[in-house]
Every structure is written in C-alpha cells, then in structure tokens.
Amino acid sequence: MRIAAMKHRPSSPVAVPVAPGVLLDSRRALVHPEQRWLAVADLHFGYEARRRREGALMPDWGMAQGEQTLLDLLADHQPHRLILVGDVMDGVGAVEETLVLLERLRERIEVVCVEGNHDRVSLRRAGQFLPHWQEGAFWFEHGHRPLNPEPGRILITGHEHPAVRLADGAGLRLKLPALVQEQLTPDCVRWILPAFSPWAAGGEYRSPYLRLATWLCAPSRIWPTDREQSQEEA
C-alpha cells in the first residue's frame, strides 16, 4: 500500500485501521487493501454548477478538488475497484459533468456506482448505476431506503453526512466529518461514511442503535471519540 511509504508532512493524509483489514483514510475514504477496493459516499459532484445555474455566485473549485482527491486516493492505495456509495451527483443540472467524471475515472479503474437519492434517472441509466453492491461480508447501499440487516453483514452506507462539532470553551469551534459504526442487530453492523463532497459540511447523526465508534476525520489525523453510547442514552 503506497500510502504507508509516503513521506510525512504536517498536512499529509493518514490512514488508520477501523476494523480488521479495513482502513479509514483522512480524505474520507474507506479502503480494504486485501480485497483491493476503495469506497467513498456523497460526492455531490456538480454542486457548484447546479447552484450557478440557479443564479448563485459560487466559486468554481469543488468539482476539480473532488476529482483530484479521488485520483490521489487511487494513486496512493492502488485499489482494483472504486465504489461510489450513492449521491454521486448533486441532483438536477449536473448530469453532464458527472458523466464526464465517471468516464475519466473508468479509464483508470473499475468503478461501481450505487444509486443515491440525488442521482437522477438520466444519470443512473447512462452511468450504469446499481441499487447495491457486495464485497464479501461488506454490503454497500446509499442508505436512503429501509435497510436490510442480514446476519453477518457489514452495511456500508452514506446519505447521513455525519459530522461532530468540537469546542474548547475558549472560542474554538470546529466541525469535522466522521465515520459512524453502529450495531443494527446482534449479528449486523452499519458503517456510515463521511460525505466526500467539500461542500457537505454534515451534521450531528442520531439514531436509536448502539453507537460502537465515531471516527473523526481531520486533514492529517483520524481519531475516535471518547465515549460510545446509544442515542437513547444521550
């Protein structure tokens, strides 16, 4: 895995294990080096293009940054398959830009596109989208539909854009994207990926399930929160 050999700089990305054989990259990607896949969710590609067409004054950098980050992740981890776990595009008005992105990515690697609620029919038809995808015990779906917690399955979803707010009492306020791991049933867990889009700030995620861990993603650091609890306890 090439990321382990990268020369560390203060702003260098890192990847840490969040389960046996699975890494979380601080660039908001999940990686399985042995199974050779890399997964991200909620690209919302074309957000600024859609907003400009609606008349908003948006800087034109989100799409370029997102694509470059994906290319950097592929170069560092060298997976065989890229899994896009839904909301690849940002709704109406960005189909053309998203199809161009998928074409460029597919020139480099096998790309699996899972359907999300923002992925319009025209994109799904042209972009070869699937309702779900499986890699061994890992089951990928976007998470906007009712879940199917089969025994022994690790559900990997997006949709929620989980994030955590931090404050130090002296004026510092920070919001960081997070990977959430929770127990759906005694035999099935769910991992909710952080949103990959630089425009998706995210928010607090609450659910009735037992929270196993919440991993915060900063540009050059990943760490779990101190206490795990169900939201019914909170």
Explain what this protein looks like in three dimensions.
By secondary structure, the chain is of the alpha/beta class. The protein has one domain: 4-Layer Sandwich (Purple Acid Phosphatase, chain A, domain 2), CATH 3.60.21. The protein has four helices and 15 strands. It has helices at residues 47-53, 62-77, 95-106, 121-127; strands at 15-19, 22-25, 29-32, 37-40, 81-85, 110-114, 129-130, 133-135, 138-140, 154-157, 163-167, 173-185, 188-192, 210-218, 221-224. The strands form two sheets. Strands 8, 9, 10, 11, 12, 13, 14 and 15 form an eight-stranded mixed β-sheet that branches. A seven-stranded mixed β-sheet has the order 1-2-3-4-5-6-7. A hairpin with a 2-residue loop joins β8 (133-135) and β9 (138-140). α3 packs parallel to α4. The longest helix has 16 residues, at 62-77. It is globular, with a radius of gyration of 17 Å.
Biggest sheet overview: 8 strands, mixed
Structural class: alpha/beta
Quickly give the CATH architecture: 4-Layer Sandwich
Number of beta-strand segments: 15
Whole-number average pLDDT?
Answer: 87
CATH class: Alpha Beta
Helicity range: 10-25%
Overall geometry: globular
What is the CA-based Rg, rounded? Answer: 17 Å
N-to-C CA distance: 39 Å
Low-confidence stretches: 1-9, 227-234
How many helical stretches?
Answer: 4
Which sequence of SSEs, written as H and E, runs from N to C?
Answer: EEEEHHEHEHEEEEEEEEE
Strand percentage lies at 25-35%
The tally of structural domains comes to 1
Named CATH topology:
Purple Acid Phosphatase, chain A, domain 2
